[in-house]
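Re: duplicated header lines in exported structure tokens

Our pipeline writes sequence and tokens for each protein into one text file. With two proteins the header for the second block appears twice in some exports. Here is an export where it did not happen, for reference. First protein block:
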Amino acid sequence: MVAEKLRRTPAQVALRWGLQMGHSALPKSTNEARIKENSDVFGWSIPEDLLAKLSEIEQARLVRGTNFVHDTFGPYRSVEELWDGEI
């Protein structure tokens, strides 16, 4: 929906969102067309009303970090401790 309104691809919108939010965006591709597409995120911005729509998307962690947790050994005793309670 947002990509269609901006006449951009979903990937471009995701990259631009990251940049506008102050995050580092590191796209990866070996496809020449996608590399060019990914680099076309600097001459435009997402308007505030559409940025608000993107902020409504429910967030979830793809990697919970359970491999970094051990109740006896390791720097983190629980997933909650690893993420400072922000799971």
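Second protein block, exported in the same file:
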Amino acid sequence: VAETASTFAELIVADATLKAAKTKEEKINLLDTKLQNALAMFMNIHSRFIFENRFYEARKEGLVSEDKITEMMVEAQKEGYQGALATYHPYFWAAKLHFFIDDVPFYNFPYTFGYLFSLGIYAYANQKGANFEEEYIHLLRDTASMTTEDLAKKHLNVDLTQPDFWQAGIDMVTEDIQMFMELTEEFI
């Protein structure tokens, strides 16, 4: 939840910039940037989570060899990216510092949660319009004093255990994908 304000602000700026874009090329570039971010959150960090989870399970059995770790990394990337990559980064586990922060396991997962939470808030804000600002300020003030579930219930009247909130944010990314596909259709 610590990234909520910055991610929410990024979404506002990205959409405002996209609306102000004058050319098709500008729109394509801006959407590409937004979609790269979504890809990182939905697929890259998911593959990291899969890898880390499997690594900790394997580690319970003893030392894990470099070859096994590398194999687990590739398998996690294949699963996390749903086979969408042509090549893999087998030594990503060695190149990414986050895997070596041993006092914070699953370091990457909160980024995806925060991204999804911010997307959901942004979708909610778009529905509420100008009336949302005061609610948002109160939500931010309470972020360190209650659980995310309680925060969403109190300030957004949303039950985070239900899929609607999350789906609203994902739908926004889906709309960006559709717009990107329409704008780039002539290049395919």
